[in-house]
Design goal:
By secondary structure, the protein is an alpha+beta fold. It folds into 3 domains: 113 residues, Copper Amine Oxidase, Chain A, domain 1; 112 residues, Immunoglobulin-like (Sandwich); 176 residues, Aminopeptidase. Helices cover 19% and strands 36% of the residues. It is built from 9 helices and 31 strands. The strands form 7 sheets. A 6-stranded mixed sheet has the order 27-26-28-31-29-30, with helices on both faces. The chain has a 5-stranded antiparallel sheet with strand order 5-6-7-8-9. Helix 4 packs across helix 9 and helix 6 packs antiparallel against helix 9. The protein is flat. The structure holds zinc ion (ZN). The site of zinc ion (ZN) has 6 residues, from loops.
Length: 493
């Protein structure tokens, strides 16, 4: 392991490293690396921001012995060791590990003229294992031989993931079979919940690291119990119940009675969330973990107010949304054409094919060069109680004309992700453009629609050959058929 320090010290850095005044809120956080307490200079302050331990970049360079480069102009912090490079930007939650973008719990910031970065992220990316003892305010770092392999997907080691193999309910007791005993964990590994939300039939739990909860379905009363082992409440934005239950506001959802949460056990801590229902057997659920959030997606199967197809024909309702339009041209192609025209041309071809499908009712958000607002598009689909929502777009990065490929977006819901995977597969196969993958993205039309929803970026209009292809009738026909094939496969038609 190369341990040289390569610090680019500019005048700005001297300012950054000026001694900070001690004040009442100074934490006495200790950092222990491989059993040895780091000797932090007196003027160095470790700060706790919403339960994220932030350390000055000086500590990263001098004590953790990584190469650090601070660029005042771009506000970039570049941390490097061996072949590994991570780049963080002050005020931005998006960071880069090599060339891959990752999402931080918390953005680096400047506190009292000092750039501070989240110690967990930096350490874990550099192959250190991180523990946090909340009671004693101690960060423990341990060298590991193999750094985490997948920087983008949380940072938990397999070694600490307990797997639930089976869940049973007998003798009034949930019986949970695990691949190993979940031993009471010390504070050093206590996970912290920062936020709880229930909206659009999704329970969203923001955590400081990935935890696999134990989920149990119970009757009398009908409920789903979600237990987070070795987990406590962190700096929550909503009140933390002391000795009693907190309640989440859920809005008016048929079949859902209430969602409550509590610190179910102390020592080891365990957070319990209870979703109380009228009828638990009419609910399917999916769980996933996306950028610091555990998401439980509830699907009320026999919803008492079922989707009413507009025609009353029992057909599946598919909403096709040609992006932009009218006053909103979208992006511009390399030959100065507007994205909105491509979107509409392709969407109309999709519509033409879907009109031939006996079991599908197709509804367009626009059929001409007009601009319905994004909220209007969302409302249309939600009011129809549509089965599927597909938004059609073309990409463009004029500054990078060599960029090419097809990418597909969904937002959080497992059903949307499944639809995205299927449609994307068909599109990539039919067009043969570069596969840029299926991505989670918070885009209004797929975020606020309540049905499985995807946004397709078919290709790059800023690339000369891709633009030519996308503007051709034959390629649009292929793309339209692929989108329809994907929708039909998803709807099992
Ligand atoms: Zn667009």
């Amino acid at each position: 392991m190369k341990k040289s320090i390569l610090l680019f010290l500019f005048s700005a850095l001297i300012l950054l490293f000026m001694p900070v005044q001690s004040h009442a809120a100074t934490t006495q956080t200790k950092i222990i690396l491989d059993g040895q307490e780091l000797n932090l200079p007196n003027e160095v302050e470790v700060v706790n921001v919403r339960n994220n331990i932030m350390i000055p970049i000086r500590v990263v360079a001098e004590n953790l012995k990584f190469n650090v480069n601070w660029d005042q102009k771009t506000q970039n912090v570049n941390i490097q060791q061996g072949s590994k490079t991570i780049t963080l930007t002050v005020g931005k939650q998006e960071a880069y590990v090599g060339n891959s973008a990752v999402f931080l719990n918390i953005a680096p910031q400047i506190i009292k003229n000092t750039v501070v970065v989240p110690i967990r992220f930096v350490s874990e990316e550099m192959g250190l294992r991180v523990g946090w003892n909340n009671k004693e305010k101690i960060v423990t770092l341990a060298s590991t031989t193999s750094p985490p392999s997948s920087p983008a997907n949380g940072s938990q080691n397999d070694a600490t993931t307990n797997l639930v193999d089976e869940i049973n309910y007998a003798d009034n007791q949930p019986v949970v079979s695990l691949d190993r005993e979940i031993t009471p964990q010390s504070d050093a590994t206590t996970n912290l919940i920062h936020e709880l939300n229930y909206a659009n039939n999704q329970l969203v739990v923001s955590l400081d690291r990935e935890v696999t909860p134990v989920i149990t379905t119970l009757k009398n009363p009908e409920r789903i119990v979600v237990d987070f082992p070795a987990t406590d409440f962190g700096n929550m934005s909503q009140p933390v119940p002391t000795g009693s239950m907190g309640k989440l506001s859920t809005g008016d959802i048929p079949n859902l009675t209430e969602v409550r949460y509590s610190l179910f056990k102390n020592d080891p801590a365990q957070v319990r969330i209870v979703i109380e229902l009228n009828n638990v057997s009419s609910v399917n659920y999916n769980q996933q973990y996306i950028t610091g959030k555990f998401i439980l997606d509830l699907d009320m199967v026999n919803d008492p107010t079922p989707a009413t197809p507009i025609s009353g024909s029992g057909k599946k309702i598919v909403v096709i949304d040609p992006g932009h339009g009218g006053s909103d041209p979208g992006t511009t192609s390399i030959t100065n054409k507007h994205e909105k025209h491509f979107n509409l041309a392709l969407a109309l071809k999709v519509q033409a094919i879907l009109l031939q499908e006996p079991e599908i009712e197709v509804v367009m958000t626009r059929e001409t060069d007009v601009y319905p607002t994004r909220s209007e598009r969302v409302k249309l689909a939600n009011d129809l109680n549509a089965d599927v929502f597909v938004s059609i777009h073309g990409n463009s990065v004029l500054s990078s004309p060599q960029t090419t490929g097809t990418e597909t977006f969904y937002y959080q819901r497992a059903s949307s992700k499944e639809l995205a995977n299927i449609v994307h597969k068909h599109l990539v196969k039919a067009l043969g453009l570069k596969d840029r993958g299926v991505k989670n993205g918070s885009l209004q039309v797929i975020r606020e629609t309540k049905m499985p929803a995807v946004l397709l970026e078919v290709g790059f209009l800023s690339n000369k050959s891709e633009e030519e292809a996308m503007m051709s009738e034959s390629v649009q026909a292929k793309a339209a058929q692929a989108i329809v094939d994907g929708i039909k496969e998803y709807l099992k038609l």
